[in-house]
Design goal:
alpha+beta, Helix Hairpins, BirA Bifunctional Protein, domain 2, 2 domains, elongated, RNA-binding
Length: 428
RNA sequence: GGAGAAAUCGCGUAGUUGGUCGAGCGCGCACGAUUGGAAAUCGUGUAACCGGUAACACGGUUCGAGAGUUCGAAUCUCUCUUUCUCCGCCA
């Protein structure tokens, strides 16, 4: 959500941004919202004047009643009711126009960063940098569920009977590895100065509508029957929600948090649960990082955030690359975003394991997350979020990259303390 | 889950037979005076959002949230949320 004043003063900038995102059907909305806003301000001005009159007259009535002049008071009352009808009309119009304006403003995309490459869709995303050598070993790498099964590490049959497609039982060393990755990632972020947080895994509907669009909500969120509660799709939801309607003193920024949570997603729509295994599932666990900072610091934090994920993966010997989201593939709320992708020696390509986003002040404006400057001025914060690691999916990359010809899997040194000193997972 | 009490300007509080209450007082904070400097003291100021203005002025809205009664609501009615106390139940 961008600032209405900015749109009013820079309609051409907003329009060019819409063209850059290949959403030309939204172009007429800019002029439409300017007209609606113009009318709204007229209605408000007239309404304010009438309300001012009413307030004045009501005070007179009070004074007259106190003096016992009932007849005169009745006369003034009649004056008030004369304007009551017009005022009621205006109040209805004010509500109506404010609603229309907000609805349109929610669909106008955020102004993208000048560094974002222009492109229509995900096929035009741009590789930024590779980290580590993408190796293809001379033996065949099995599908990830087959690797897991070779250690009796996954039971999808039981999961299907118990919960349906899109769920899993992780077992034994693989389950332990999963927990080890989460614990290691948590400590990794704590060591980089982030504050660890375990947030609520369910949130109210008003928080949900604050952090995502209706379409996203419908495609992702599970609702608890009979309660005003939804299972979170990512801890970003409860972590950003933490700051709704807050004014934080400037000197307390930045807020840098790393949170653990299970994540629940319907995965309804475009992809669905089609891939076999643990690539796309209804429930997974994730370590996340979020930052709330001053506007001038958000670019610096953006680069630090994705670098954290890259460093984490490199410390586990997994080659990764960063992929910059082009304008057309960038979600409307985002200023800039890069995906961190891990190397799959089986598929001989990189696949997404994390996503780092700078939301600018768009999310903050929607959720009223404000900062009090030293001079007393209030302004909207910038918000960012990034995946530290989401193990079920990252285990695919982990197992493929650390697999040996004999079927065993190496445990990188950093994970060993979390695996009871184990150096290798071997078949039993 | 049941019973009761409560939610006011950063904090603590006053205000409930509806009318100079957008709100008094204390603390905190800011500025000024006093002082060699400081403490203490005294004085002044101290919410957010929207409209309006070149900038002021000015106007509107908000006393947990929403709806209602009324010419007028912090005060009355309804719904919701949260907190505290007691009981029940449980990791």
């Amino acid at each position: 959500m961008i600032d209405l004043k900015f749109l009013r003063e820079n309609p051409e900038v907003v329009k060019q941004n819409i063209r850059n995102k290949f959403q030309d059907s939204k172009l007429p909305l800019v002029d439409e919202v300017i007209e609606l806003d113009d009318s709204f301000r007229k209605f408000k001005l007239e309404g304010d004047t009438l309300r001012a009159d009413r307030n004045k007259l009501s005070k007179q009535i009070g004074t007259l009643m106190a003096q016992g002049k009932k007849d005169e008071a009745e006369k003034v009352k009649a004056q008030v009711s004369a304007n009551a009808q017009r005022l009621a009309e205006l109040e209805k119009l004010e509500d109506e126009y404010a609603g229309k304006i907000k609805k349109i403003m929610m669909t106008i995309p955020n102004i993208i960063d000048p560094s974002v490459p222009i492109g229509k869709d995900d096929s035009e995303n741009v590789e930024v940098q590779r980290f580590g050598e993408p190796k293809v070993p001379d033996f065949e790498i099995p599908y990830h569920t087959d690797i897991m099964e070779s250690f009796n590490g996954i039971d999808l049959d039981s999961a299907r009977r118990v919960a349906g497609n899109g769920f899993y039982y992780l077992m034994g060393d693989i389950a332990r590895l999963h927990s080890a990755v989460i614990s290691y990632a948590r400590d990794f972020m704590i060591n980089r100065g982030f504050t660890y947080c375990v947030p609520p895994f369910m949130i109210r509907s008003d928080v949900v509508t604050g952090v995502m669009s209706f379409a996203e909500m419908d495609a992702m969120m599970y609702k608890i029957e009979g309660e005003d509660l939804y299972l979170i799709g990512t801890s970003e939801h409860s972590m950003i929600g933490k700051f709704i309607d807050t004014i934080t003193p400037e000197e307390e920024l930045p807020k840098t948090l790393t949170s653990y949570s299970p994540c629940f997603r319907k995965e309804k729509g475009a992809h669905g649960i089609e891939e076999r295994g643990v690539y796309r599932i209804h429930q997974f666990e994730k370590q996340e990082m979020i930052v709330v900072c001053k506007p001038e610091d958000s670019k610096m934090w953006f680069d630090k955030l994705w670098q954290n994920t890259v460093d984490l993966f490199r410390s586990m010997d997994i080659p990764v690359r960063t992929l910059e989201c082009c304008s057309g593939d960038l979600a409307d709320l985002k200023v800039k975003s890069v995906d961190v992708e891990a190397w799959s020696p089986r598929q001989k390509k990189y696949f997404e394991v994390g996503s780092c986003s700078n939301l600018g002040d768009a999310q903050a404006r929607r959720l009223r997350i404000r900062v009090a400057g030293k001079d007393g001025k209030k302004y909207f914060a910038h918000t960012l979020n990034n995946t530290v690691v989401a193990p079920p999916r990252m285990l695919i990359a982990f197992l493929e990259n650390n697999l040996n010809a004999d079927g065993s899997v190496n445990i990188p040194e950093v994970l060993r303390p979390y695996m009871g000193g184990m150096t290798k997972i071997v078949k039993k």
